[in-house]
Design brief:
FAD/NAD(P)-binding domain; 430 residues; 8-stranded mixed beta sheet; binds flavin-adenine dinucleotide; D-Amino Acid Oxidase, Chain A, domain 2
Length: 430
């Protein structure tokens, strides 16, 4: 039997491209199999600064920088007339102070083309439909563009198929999400009345008055991505037609109505629902999962591509050692690492939806030290063991929300000996 490739990577999105780049850098022969033709649309356009480290680690950053994408210097949270602004310049030391807003059709193609130029074979228009594992190899069944079929033998399968979730489906690895079903309605627009200068590229995350939130993500080509996230029944109070529905939702939120009052939609709004998902296992004999093929939480903090790249890079590093014959421990070296980052973001996502985080973000006064620590998390540094808002994210947010709550006018005074709201909110760190 002839082993045709060291590893078959399913999917050429950010996870697949980063994994392929790392394995190629280490001298292996990955084969990337991609169901679609690029460029193709995918949602997920706002990066976090930590992606810059990850792109740099696999020599893909220069290719991205050359595209002239709009620089994203931070995030603006808005609720009614309250604003909480994060600038990535004001985070814990060492992190990148900008990243990019990227039209994904272009961004994903740039990554894939750059990797291909380094000698990685990418089979576009080929869908993986079967996988069979044997003791010393795996056989991956491909659906060919002409309707035929072909098997590829490989030493390892790395599933980076994103929402395709190829191995989770084939190997029964899917688990229900811990998050309720949410639905997103989104499109691209022209005519967005953007702020100028450094503010132009910041993402806006706006709390809609009726239990939803919206994003505004501007691109350098004059197009802006806008979208809504809510429980499915939220949409029933608006027009049924998707374009009219999105226009009504925009008009009913004073945070975005002014900025978006003249927009033209580039394509009819699309809908995606039930995207959050869980996973039973991240690896097994001769396979591992990375990117969205693992667990996807929620888009609110734009963590998807960061987690996709971080998991893909780590999986490729561990796999490289295994292919060289080293003993590796996928649980500690890979799964535990990924879970730490996911757990950090999960703490913030839970706190966002149960209103603890909005209470913190829109509190006044806000401690600059605490906000710097939170800013680092929002910049994607979700593994930083020096940041208590990472290592003790759940407890830190809980404590801070309680203090903020007690600082509201009319709230009971702090117990004797307890920390006062004013003290905690004014401390430089916690
Ligand atoms: C509403 C919404 C908004 C979001 N906003 C953001 C955001 O602002 N920022 C952010 O970072 N993330 C965001 N995300 C998350 C983001 O979309 C994903 O995390 C990211 O695309 C994951 O990258 P990936 O490489 O794992 O998968 P993908 O980008 O989905 O790539 C997977 C590839 O695998 C291919 N594939 C699928 N099945 C097969 C098969 N059978 N055979 C071969 N190939 C296959 C697909 O065609 C695809 O090209 C958002 C998600 C949602 C739902």
């Amino acid at each position: 039997m002839v082993i045709e490739s060291d590893v078959v990577i399913i999917g050429a999105g950010p996870a697949g491209a980063v994994a392929a780049a790392e394995l190629r850098r280490e001298g292996f022969r990955p084969l990337v199999v991609e169901k679609l033709r690029f460029p193709r649309f995918v949602i997920g356009e706002s990066l976090l600064p930590h992606t810059m480290d990850l792109l740099q680690a696999v020599d893909l950053l220069d290719a991205v920088e050359q595209r002239g994408y709009l620089r994203k210097h931070g995030a603006l949270f808005r609720r009614g007339d309250e604003i909480c602004e994060f600038d990535f310049a004001n985070q814990l030391q060492g992190g990148w102070d900008y990243t990019f807003q990227v039209p994904r059709a272009d961004f994903d193609k740039v990554l894939a083309d750059t990797v291909a130029a380094r000698g990685v074979e990418i089979l576009y228009g080929h869908g993986v439909s079967t996988v069979r594992f044997a003791a010393d190899h795996a056989e991956v069944g491909l659906d060919l563009p002409d309707g035929g079929r072909r098997n590829v033998t490989t030493r390892f399968v790395l599933d980076c198929s994103g929402y395709g979730r190829v191995l989770p489906r084939l190997l029964d690895l899917e688990a229900p999400s811990t998050l309720p079903v949410r639905e997103s309605l989104f499109t691209h627009v022209t005519g967005d009345l953007r702020p100028a200068g450094r503010e132009e590229g910041k993402i806006w995350i706006c709390v809609h008055p009726r239990d939803a939130w919206t994003w505004i993500i501007p691109f350098s080509n004059g197009i802006t991505s806008i979208g809504v996230v809510a429980r499915p029944d939220f949409y029933r109070q608006f027009a049924a037609d998707p374009e009219a529905q999105l226009r009504e939702i925009v008009a009913s939120d004073s945070n975005i109505a002014g900025r978006l009052r003249n927009v033209q939609m580039v394509f009819p709004p699309r809908r995606i629902a039930g995207y959050s998902c869980g996973i039973k296992r991240l690896f097994g004999p001769r396979f591992a999962l990375a990117g969205n093929a693992t667990e996807f939480l929620d888009p609110v903090f734009s963590s998807g591509v960061t987690l996709a790249m971080a998991s893909a890079l780590r999986a490729a590093q561990v796999l490289g050692r295994e292919l060289r014959g080293e003993q590796v421990d996928w649980q500690t070296d890979y799964a535990d690492y990924l879970e730490r980052g996911v757990a950090t973001f999960r703490a913030y996502i839970d706190a966002w939806y149960d209103q603890r985080l909005p209470a913190i973000l829109f509190a006044a006064p806000r401690s600059p030290g605490v906000m710097r620590q939170i800013c680092s998390v929002l910049a994607g540094y979700a593994w930083d063991t020096d940041n208590p808002y990472v290592t003790r994210a759940q407890r830190a947010l809980q404590a801070l929300a309680a203090v903020v709550g007690s600082a509201r006018p009319g709230a009971p005074a702090a117990p004797p000996g307890g920390v006062t709201a004013a003290r905690l909110l004014a401390t430089k760190s916690s």
